[in-house]
Amino acid sequence: MNTVTQTAGIAGLTISQRLIAGGLAFIIGMTLLFGVGFASDMAVHNGAHDTRHSMGFPCH
Questions:
Q1: Which among 11, 18, 43, 44 is most buried, taking Cβ atoms within 10 Å?
Q2: pLDDT in tens, 21-53
């Protein structure tokens, strides 16, 4: 008996599907970065600020 196993992953995606996935990931990431970075709640803003500094991301 032969069994065929299919795995879902990046290898099965077309170029346009990869571009869409990458674009959506970028948009979500930028929304989180700037949404939290410019938050009016100081606890949230300071947490994001300290995280950016610890990762070496220049923010000012």
A1: 44
A2: 999 999 999 888 887 767 777 877 777 778 778
